[in-house]
């Protein structure tokens, strides 16, 4: 059965084919996206790449690309610099250019977070055209509640509009943040997360990346409550942040619940994939895709992770 | 009798027909506008869409569109993302694109409100042209008194000018807000509200959306005092904010007074319409139009709400 | 005797005729300007339009236009919205578009004043051309001493330059304001006012609108001391703010002194004209012009106000 | 002997002749510049123009132009408004347009100084071309150490680049200022002044205007120490601020030392020239040029001031 | 053996030859860069150029150029003003234009550092073309952790993109700075430095200039730990800041360790070269190149410094 895509009207007629093709690539024809998230070298500096329990090979930025090129993922999201420096050797990866990023050095005690656009869409399109890479979309972070929310709303709206105008898909990282929300549990407050998901829809993004309340007790009930989030997002699809590394089986179970119970349409995973040796990273990515894209059972997906099974689409 | 439109001179000659057509559509040929206000997914996050006394179907963003397409409204005002994602299925709705929006997370204790333009008019016009949707106008919020008032005045003035230049109508949400007005009852201070209405006129907007002092005692006297507001607005037409959900009969009475006593030229209603099951929402919207556009008595309009009568224009 | 105009060199040769014509219109061929100031709907919200001692008809914004069209004035200065909505019915008024405005809600306790440009000169010129109205110039407020002085200097300098480039005349409202000047009597400190007048000259404006020290004792001496202000302005002409409503005879005497003793080249009057019934407003405006433009004695001008005499130019 | 000009490479080949001509005019063919500084009407408001010991004629802004047109100066630096209003009557003065200025009202207790660009170079060039005036260069103030230093560096660098691109010369007023330097004696700290002079060179300006430590004891030794400043400036030429009015002989001696001992390449004098009756102002200006441009002895220059001698080039 | 250059995909095909040529020049065909860093006249004002132990000739800005033109360096990095004023006499130096700079006057007690772009790449390219100089690249400083980080990320990303688009190479000075990092030892915290190096890669720069932890004890172990930094940078090459003047032999040893142990790809040296008499400066620069580019032993390189040996490539 062919994938049914609800192309937004911000995609002009002459770019509809391009958009549908990019959408199909990023979702592997399933309508769901397994996004390999790789913007941590700015967001977390070197914290995610060296340390105990992190294999030495993770420290090499090429580790990202080896995984992304060999594993079964939807798209690899990272900053332009990494893409421009490794892309020539990894031309087959579907890329999502993460257009803004900030370090974790500034704390909210001093200043609310602002993640500024690095390049205008004009240059993103220029890069796509001249590099010949398989760039399928763009990503952008919005911190709702921040004193810079207004700036990010303007940038996000324009980026989504112009991405669609070129037939690219868009992903918005949508996080409540800043001194005004510091009294709320911004990663676990489902009602608040639902609000953010709805904002993603009003901006017109294809996918909105949302925190999942991993820390709440009663995860089965949580998965049901999280339907508020995917409902609020309407025709914008919700993909959940993977967050810090968890045990593989537990993580696959969580993803499965997100898909089957919560109504998520994929996931966005970084550390849970790449903080492992290459082969294990690849198997983990494939296991995630098994659950997220092809409705594998958690047990079967786990066997893909352990190498007992292969992913078949 | 044909509608007499006082076309502002910011509408150039070659766009006068377009403007008049949009004006006629948005006002159903009556000169008054029943605007279905649907920007709450940003302004109030998910607060208006889930909760006790709110039917489950309200949580689906498509609820907006079902109502807007089936009820007798003037125009549906919402953000571009919603329009771009549902518009293909709801091509007959007259749309007003709400160009700026902010969440309710930031409080005035930390920072005065700034609702930033999301897209320049150039892209709004691009969208109108390429989408083929029935976009009749644009909306924009100004917070007078805020420390960002200057920014919003600049954006609002340019948006109105450029909207008119393309034959679109404009609606300004005009609210006093911020630490400088915190000692005044900003939703009930009629003299202050009148000031805001007058500012709408100086900006050149067609309609200005104003709080109505629902909380003051002696509503009949209030309705008379509110004439200060509509008088101050001069040739700009005042439409009042519906606010939180009220009992249907009471709300229809309030609207009727706004029209017949206060001189309002329509209304802007959101929650009082959509926080109901679909059929009831539609009937409520029709009842509102009966009162606002066609001078129905409150009793007759209420019968439309209850289903005892049909709206006849 | 023909009016001698000292055309600034910012007016290019091919716009010199246009500039001279606008200058002649605005000054009624006298070289002095009686500017009917009408930007209060933003600056003072509705305070100037309703209240005791203010006739009911003043509340209607059209009151402005009735006066401006029937009285003998130089030009009527107001915001674009008012002009675009009433201009079609009042095409003969010479208009000065007030390009920036702010409300009086924000207090200096919280933030220094910033009055932001509403429209770029490109759109002002577009409006002039397309509307066909008799727009003779532009107005802009600068608050020297404010923490936003730098922004306003940039905007003012560009507006004046571009106005002249199109043959329009310019008026700068020049007021010391903000926390840095709060210890000075900013409306009565003649040396400070003279500084502001000089700044108007350095910006290149045709007219600079300055507070007059109405509250100081010994007004005859004050009028002489005020020569410091008109001297500092050099070839830029000073017109004084009328301020709050005064008794007609007293106001005419003050204006006469401003012209005959202080060296003012006209005046800028709002409330002293329009806070009266229409006919009285018109007579008052004519009386003001008699004193300001045609050197009538105070007594004769007062008779124009009372209706005993007619204005003859 | 022809003047040897070290034309910077920011001057393109086709503008080299224009640049050299402007350089020659501004330096009277000597390579040194006697700049008549006239931006005080903004910087000091009316303080420099009225007061005891200031002749009445100084209050008229035309006083500037009378001096500049009759005295032997290199160039007259002032704001565009003054030039555009008096330039038609004084077409022979070589003008330097001072592009930014601020009043002295804001104090550093509240906010660091920011002197904002008034007009972009595009309009400066437009003015030069259309006015036909003898505009030889542009001036701009940078406050190093201010919290707005970053803004001024950007503006200054672009102004110098674009001035050179049109063949105009540039002068940077370079002053350490703001809360970060309040503990240093910013007008007398030679090492700090040398730093500023070096910054002028890095920006690429032709001339940098620097405070001279007039208040330090042991002026002969000071003049020697000041060589640190002119050395740090390298191929950018240092001209010293004249500052408040001093006795003529003393001032001429100071200038002579600046030239002969410190290595200054001219001077920038305002109040020491114009706070005198016209004839005396002219003689003082000529005396200053005698010392600064033609190496007259202080005694001979003083005789020019007293009228006993004439300036011969 | 020909140099293998990993050209980033931000370099378009038609500029690849230009880029490779510039890369080859700047690295002397070795792939490593010995960058003579000369932006101190802004960053440190005159502190580095006069003082005890600093020879008098260092105070002359031309000292920079004499060294750069006679020593064996990769490229000389400095501001446009210096290049435009001395470049005509030193046309053979390969230049890197340092595009932003700030003085050291503002302290973090008052405000976090912001180093603002001085000229847009459009003008840099204009200068390169019109001057005919051998400009091989651009430099830009980013202060991660500063409250202005967002601004600098945007500027840096655009500058790198546009530099590559013209075939120029890029160097990012990457320093953690500001109140948010004041509790960390920002010049010696290797994990933090590694984070910065990784950020350089995400921005896509060719070289990233990083502090080296000179102050830590156990320098041999430090050199090994520093591999975290060069690893984090991936295909972006790390060059270390030279910092304050050290004894020549010690400095050469440190550089040798950076290359041989830490994986640095060159160095960026300023004061350790130029705070010496010309001939000694040249020999020191050559000794540095010997170690950094040609793998000389520290002993042999030291003999180049002392004049006992000549540098042979």
Can you put this structure into words, describing what you see?
5 copies of one chain form a homopentamer. Chain A has helices at 16-26, 40-43, 62-70, 80-86, 121-131, 149-165, 190-203, 219-225, 227-233, 248-262, 271-274, 278-294, 298-306, and strands at 33-37, 75-78, 95-98, 135-144, 169-176, 207-210, 237-241, 266-269. By secondary structure, chain A is of the alpha/beta class. In chain A, helix 5 links the parallel strand 3 (95-98) and strand 4 (135-144). In chain A, helix 10 (248-262) packs antiparallel against helix 13 and helix 12 (278-294) runs antiparallel to helix 13 (298-306). Chains in contact: A-B, A-E, B-C, C-D, D-E. Chains A and B meet through helix 6, helix 7 and helix 9 of A and helix 4 and helix 5 of B.
């Amino acid at each position: 059965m062919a994938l049914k895509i609800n192309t937004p009207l911000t995609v002009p007629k002459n770019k509809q084919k391009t958009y549908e093709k990019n959408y199909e690539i990023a979702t592997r024809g399933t309508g769901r996206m397994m996004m390999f998230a790789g913007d941590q070298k700015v967001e977390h500096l070197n914290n995610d790449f060296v340390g105990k329990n992190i294999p030495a090979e993770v420290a090499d930025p090429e580790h990202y690309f080896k995984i992304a090129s060999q594993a079964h993922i939807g798209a690899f999201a990272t900053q332009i610099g990494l893409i421009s420096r490794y892309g020539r050797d990894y031309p087959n990866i579907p890329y999502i250019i993460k257009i803004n990023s900030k370090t974790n050095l500034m704390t909210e005690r001093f200043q609310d977070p602002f993640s500024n656009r690095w390049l205008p869409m004009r240059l993103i399109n220029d890069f796509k055209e001249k590099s010949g890479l398989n760039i399928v979309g763009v990503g952008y972070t919005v911190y709702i509640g921040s004193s810079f929310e207004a700036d990010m709303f303007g940038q996000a709206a324009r980026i989504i509009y112009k991405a669609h105008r070129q037939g690219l898909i868009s992903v918005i990282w949508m996080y409540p943040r800043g001194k005004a929300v510091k009294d709320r549990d911004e990663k676990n407050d489902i009602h608040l997360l639902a609000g953010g998901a709805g904002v993603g829809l009003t901006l017109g993004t294809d996918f909105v990346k949302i925190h999942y309340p991993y820390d709440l007790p009663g995860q089965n009930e949580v998965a049901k409550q999280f339907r508020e989030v995917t409902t609020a997002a309407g025709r914008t699809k919700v993909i959940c942040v993977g967050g810090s590394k968890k045990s593989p089986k537990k993580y696959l179970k969580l993803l499965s619940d997100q898909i089957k119970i919560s109504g998520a349409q994929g996931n966005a995973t970084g550390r849970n994939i790449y903080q492992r040796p290459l082969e294990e990273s690849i198997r983990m990515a494939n296991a995630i895709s098994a659950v997220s894209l092809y409705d594998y059972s958690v047990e079967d997906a786990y066997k893909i992770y352990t190498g007992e099974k292969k992913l078949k689409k």
